[in-house]
Structure formats: structure tokens, C-alpha cells
Amino acid sequence: MALVYLPVLGGVTGRFSRFITNISEGLRQGLPWVVRAAFVPVAMFVAFVGAMQFLNPSYLLGASAPTGFGGLVPGMLIFFLGAVLTSIALGAAEIRRTERRVRSQHQRTPFGYLIKFIAGNPVMPIVVIAGIAFLVANVFIYFGQNNNGVEFFVESEPEQAIVYVRARGNLSVDEKDEILRDVEDILLNHPGVESTIAFAGEGGLNQNTGGASAPLDTVAQAQIELIPWENRPVVSEEMRLLGILPFTETQVDPAFDGDVVLAELQEQLDQIPGIYTEILNLAQGPASGKPIHLRLKGDDLDVLNSAAGIARAQFEETPGLKDIEDSRPLPGIDWQINVDVEKAGRYGADVATVGAMVQLVTRGILLDTMRVDTSDEEIEIRVRLPENDRVLSTLDTLKVRTQDGLIPLSNFVTREPVAKLGRINREDQKRYLDVKSDFLPDLVVISGDDGETSAVVAAESAQAKEAEAAGRTVTPLTANERIAQITTWLDTRPFPAGIEWEWTGDQEEQEESGAFLSQAFAGALGLMFIILLAQFNSFYNAVLVLLAVILSTTGVLIGMLVMNQPFSIIMTGTGIVALAGIVVNNNIVLIDTYQEYSRYMPRIEAIVRTAEARIRPVLLTTITTMAGLAPMMFGLSLDFIGGGYTMESPTSLWWIQLATAVVWGLGVATVLTLLFTPSMLALRVWATQYMLALGDFLKRMSFGRASRAVRDFALKREARRIEAPEILWDEEPQTDPAAPGVAPLKAAE
Asked: How far is 496 from 493, CA to CA, in rounded Å?
């Protein structure tokens, strides 16, 4: 089938191509260039209209557009017509310059002269390599001191959240519901909230919060959904491009920003007396609880409770933290019933009989279960005392039947109040308690000369600006930064003996994800090294190719600093791993071309020719990749169907850091590679020459004047003194064989 299909298709397309070329040539001969150039945007607009009609059949036809395949046909035809017209217009408007006279000698380009200057002597390769190494080292050092922090995943626009209502006391369900109604009134009256689902009492909303549970003193919950980003009100602002061209910029109303809405809700909820509210943003991406999560382990519960109290006090003293909680049991009273087994035996009673009597006062004695048509679960059948008798004082009047008759329970049963113990959590057979908190946004940490934190202030405050002007270290307040601050305190061993601590939650997930990406990165480099070693058959060339990965990582760090972005473990880390497979292509092209050229020309000249020959494809592939990812890096989303664009929509926020890593890493690595790789190749050439020269010198010094090495050296020295013959000839003007008086050349001539 292919033997018939491909020749036929090639003939048809070739004839159609010649048809378009003939029309373009006809337009070139019959119309001036200005008219032909004006026809280009018209043809492109026809192709654009066809593409829009194909994507959105109602673009031109409106509501009367046919459905199904019939609605796509008009767009396909218009797009095909526009493509043909564009090809004709571009061919007709092409600017053709007079061909230059071909010269036999190689024409050095400006970039070739630069590489010749670097590789043509043994000093400049060392200078260039040292300069690039100095740049890379300083970028890593500067990023470590002035970065914008590290985050696990990208912070996205809030669209859903859970409001935890916390209160203490023996509240009934009706009292909890009354408190929840006050919270609901505030939530529903806010213009940025679309809907609310509320739940009062035990249990709550079963949401994916990354394993994080509600605080122990939660009495009610409410899940809120904000107005979807695409449906939020917009505001327009008249602006001028370059101060001349007017245009209208439309953006989502800042008052309906998700973070602003949640902050306003929290401020209003804080005005309700007697309760404490906490808003958990159900961010997109990997779900997680509070980012600062300390876990304390120990065997003694009393000592563990004391250590949790010490840790919580330190959390409350640490500036920049909010929504602090711990998992210690809530204060309360449990009634403990003690049975004197010896006395019960005298009366002929046992513990099982006493337990049954106590159940009559509490939950009741389970007799059996039954199924009904209106329920999928079994219904328990229990026997209980009347509601008025279900109090603890009833135990004083109850009598248990024994062989000796009815005996009062009070003869051998006593009760006493004890501290309430909600639950006991264990991990690796050790009890543990958690202390958790969140951090306040838009804060910075000002460090003193000794590196210690001197103040935590708002990022836009005058104190922060004065500190930056004074040259003091100002870093954003993040979860990792606060964890490092508290870890310094934990290293002083503030807890009693027998208490162990560890960071878990987001910190644990960050370490696991970082370890996984590091292993994947190392594995990718190992596989690439094996493939390169098999292809190039040279350790030096294989390592040189992989050095581009370090250069790309330098570009990623520069991009994080320039774009003022934090380092994301997931997205930025994925970008670095992806770059490892992209940036090595430039080095592979350069080294492969160098190996080909070095077979039939001097190696220094091969390096220069390689750089000249491959700079265009290297730059083209880099620039096209960077241009393709540039809209994603700036958070630009284009609506090809409905028209228009949006900036930093919730979906685009996911990919900004990944695109930034690829764009900056690829761009910086390409520029440095075009200088670094020729320098490394030249360094090897010069090092080899000097090592051989040193070997010859040692031979001459060791074997004496009559040795072969000395004679060869003398012969080479004499050969260098002989000047090479130079042949000069004058260029004669070209003559036309058909000119009068000039005989045409014969075939033999």
C-alpha cells in the first residue's frame, strides 16, 4: 500500500507546490512589493478565522451553526484557503538579495573569531573555565543566602476551604448548632462565597486533608466554596502601551481574590465571642495539613504531656505562627467504677454481673440485632433503664440478684472522678503527641550580624525596607525557616529525659519527595553516562556532556532569584530533572561534530569550525523552546475558542515554576555551553601537547645527544626554519563565453 500511496501523494503535492510557486512568481512580476507585502496579513487573517471557526463552529455562524462533523467543515475549508493564500503571499513578498560571489576560502564568523581567541592559546581556556566555575559557585552561594524559601508544592488560588469551629465545655448538639448558625451567617453574607455545607457535632466533613484531622476541640465544621475563578467579577483599567497606544486591561477584581476572601472571613469570625475559628485552605495539588508539625515520642504519658506543654509554649513564643494546637487530651472528667472483688465474692456476685447492671444505666445491654427494609445496616436491640434513671446516682440504689438474694451494688462498688483520657496514639510501639501550627503570610525575617533572628516584620513595612537598605539579611518567613528556628531550640534538649522528637507532616513529605527526586536525578545521570560512554568511547567527552547539567541548575537558581519565586520541591525539582535530558543535547551536537572535523583538520581548527557550524541550530532549538514556554512562565493563558487571555489563573499557577526552571536553565546553560565546551576541548588539546613536549624533553635529557629523540627534535627545528613556498596569482575577470570575439570552450578544454 505504501509503495503506491507515497509516490502518488508525492506527485500530487509536488504539482500543487509548483502551482503555488507559479502564482507567486506571477504576482512578483505584475505587482509592486508594497502591494504584495500588504497581501500577507490579509492571507494570515483568513487562516486565523478558519482556525477559530474550526475550534468554535459558532464563531461566524452564531447559534445557527450545524452540529457534528458538518459544523467543522466550514472552518476546515476556510483554514485551507487561508493557508494556500498565505503560502502564495509569502512567496510573492519574499525579499531576494543578489547572490554574493562564492569565495573558495573559509569565511570566519565573529563567533568563530571569539572561539579562535579562546582556543588558540593555552591560557584563555583556563581563564574561561575558571570564570564560569567562579560564576557557578557564586550563584549557588548567593542563592543559599538570598533565596525566597522552599515550599513543597505550588501555592494555588483558593477555591474551597473548611472552617473549624473550636470551643471547650460540655456543649449539647443544640448549643453547637446555635454556634454554627452564627458562623454560617457570616459565611453566606460574604459576596465571595458561593455555597456552604455545615455540620455540627461529632464526626464532620470527610475531606482529603492529607491525613490531617480536625482539632480535638472542634464542635462544628463548615465547608465553603468560593466563586469559581472564571465567574468572578472583573475590573477594567485604561492603559497605554509605550505611552502612546491605548488599550484596556481586564483582570479579576482583587476584592474577590481567594486569599483576600479567606482573610476577611477570618477577621469577621474572630469577632464571635466564646469560640475560636480556624480556616483550612483546601489547596489544589497534594493535600496536606499544617506545615509545621512536631511529633514527640515517649513511654511515660505524664512526661509526654509535660513535654507537649513545653513545646506548645515555645510555639506560642515563636513569632510568625498561628493556629497552634496539640493532641493532648482535652480537660474533662471520667467516672471510674471500682469493684471490690473480695466483697463481691462474699455476696456471690461477680464482675460480669456488675458490668451488666452498669450497662443498664449507660448504653444498655445488647440483646440481639435485626434488619429492616429501610436500612442497609443492622439495628441493635438494647435494654436500658428509663431515661430519668440513667444517672450515676442510680448505681447507689440498684440491687444485683445473687444466691443470697438482692444485694445493693453500693456494698462492693464505688466510683470516683478521674482525669479524662481521650485516646492513646502509638507509633513504633511508642506513645506520641503532636504539636502543630501554621505560619502567617507576607512576613520577612530580619537577621542580625550574628545570624540570629532579630525581628519578624511585614514584608512591606518600613522596618524591612530600612533593613534591606542597611545591607542586613532579610529573608521571607516560610514553614522551613520557622522549622529551622525551632530546631535550634530543640537542640538545646529542653524536654525531660526519655522524650524523642521528629518533624513530620509537610516536612516529612518534603524530605521523601526530595530524596526520590535526588535518586531519580542520579539514576538519569547514570543512564546518560553509560549511553554517552558507549557512543563517544571517551570518559572525558561523557563527563563533559554531563557538566551541562550543572550549568542548567545554575540557570534555574538565577531564574528563581530574578522571578522572585520560592524553590518548589515538586515543580522546580521536576524541572531540573527534565532539564538534565534537554541541555545535554547541545553538548552532544558540539562534541559529535568536533570528533567528525578532527579526523581531517587540526584539532584547534576543528574546535573553531564546530562552534561556527553548530551555533545556529543550538540557538534555534533553545530560542524556540524558551519562546514556547515563555507564556507559561508568565502565567499567561490564551482562550483560543472564546478569545482573550488571562493572567495567573489557578491552572496556570501550577506550571509557572516548572516553566521558569526550564526557560532559565536552558537559556543560561546554552550560553555557557557555547563557551565552556570549546574551552574544555581546547584545554585537553593543549594539555596533551604540553604533556608530549614534556615527555620529549625528558627523553632528550635522559638518553643523550646521540639518541633518536634528540635527532628528531633537531630535525623538527630545522624544518620549522624552512619557509613554505607561497603561490600567488592574479584574479582574471570572468568572461562570457557567448560574448563576441570569444571562442566558446570545447568539451576537452
From this structure: 8
Q: Does 572 share its domain with 682?
A: yes
Let me know whether 655 and 519 are in one domain: yes
Q: Yes or no: say if 255 and 273 are a contact pair by the CB < 8 Å rule.
A: no
Structural domain that includes position 399: 333-419
Q: Are residues 351 and 256 in the same domain?
A: no
Residues 6+ apart with CB under 8 A from 489: 314
Q: Are residues 116 and 86 in the same domain?
A: no
- CA 413 to chain CA mean position, Å: 64
* Residue 319, in any domain of the structure: no
How confident is the model at residue 128, as a pLDDT?
Answer: 92
Q: DSSP letters along 722-742, please?
A: SPPP----PPPPP--TTSTT-
- Comparing CA positions, the residue from 446, 445, 216 lying closest to residue 330 is 216
Please check whether residues 85 and 178 belong to one and the same domain.
Answer: no
Give the type of residue at 304: L
- The DSSP code sequence of 52-65 is HHHH-THHHHGGGP
Contact 606, 614 (CB under 8 A): no
pLDDT of 443 over the 70 cut: yes
Domain membership flag for residue 706: no
Please indicate, yes or no, if residue 457 is contained in any of the structural domains. no
Residue 656 CA to residue 660 CA, distance in Å, equals 6
pLDDT for res 481 = 83
Please report the pLDDT score of residue 480 as a whole number: 81
Q: How many residues does the chain have?
A: 749
Locate 183 and state its grid cell. Answer: 458562623
Interhelix angle 603-633/110-119, nearest 10 degrees: 120
Tell which of 419, 437, 456 closes a domain. 419
Of the candidates 461, 443, 664, the one whose C-alpha atom is nearest the C-alpha of residue 563 is: 664
Degrees (nearest 5) of the Cα angle 138, 142, 144? Answer: 120
Burial of 397 (0-12, 13-18, 19+ CB in 10 A): exposed
Quick one: which H or E segment has residue 212?
A: none
CA–CA dist 660, 555 (Å, integer): 10
Q: Report yes or no on 439 lying in a domain.
A: no
> At how many degrees (to 10) do helices 110-119 and 656-703 cross?
50
Taking only the tens place, the pLDDT of each residue in 117-168 is: 998 888 999 999 999 999 999 999 988 888 777 777 777 778 888 888 888 8
Which stretch of 109-123, 408-422, 557-571, 691-705 has the lowest confidence by average pLDDT?
691-705
What is the CB neighbour count within 10 angstroms for residue 163? Answer: 24
Contact 396, 412 (CB under 8 A): no
Other Cβ atoms closer than 10 A to 539: 11
Judgement on whether residues 528 and 636 belong to the same structural domain of the protein: yes
Contact between residue 205 and residue 158 where contact means Cβ atoms under 8 Å apart: no
Q: CATH number of the domain at 392, please.
A: 3.30.2090.10
Q: Do 595 and 652 fall within a single domain?
A: yes
Give dist(CA 437, CA 312) in Å, integer: 9
Spell out the long-range contacts of 483-490 with Cβ–Cβ below 8 A and sequence spacing 24 or more.
483/292, 483/507, 485/318, 485/453, 486/292, 486/294, 486/314, 486/315, 486/318, 489/314
Of 247, 282, 317, the one marking the end of a domain is 282
Please state which of the ranges 155-159, 317-321, 582-586 shows the lowest mean pLDDT.
155-159
Q: Which of the four pLDDT bands, split at 50, 70 and 90, describes residue 208?
A: very low
How many domains is the chain partitioned into structurally? 4
Angle at 687 between CA 582 and CA 594, to 5 degrees: 40
Residue 102 carries which DSSP code?
Answer: P
Question: Do 276 and 167 contact (CB within 8 A), yes or no?
Answer: yes
CATH code of the domain containing 563? 1.20.1640.10
219/165 Cα distance (integer angstroms)? 6
Please say whether the beta carbons of 368 and 381 come within 8 A: yes
Three-state DSSP state, 187: helix
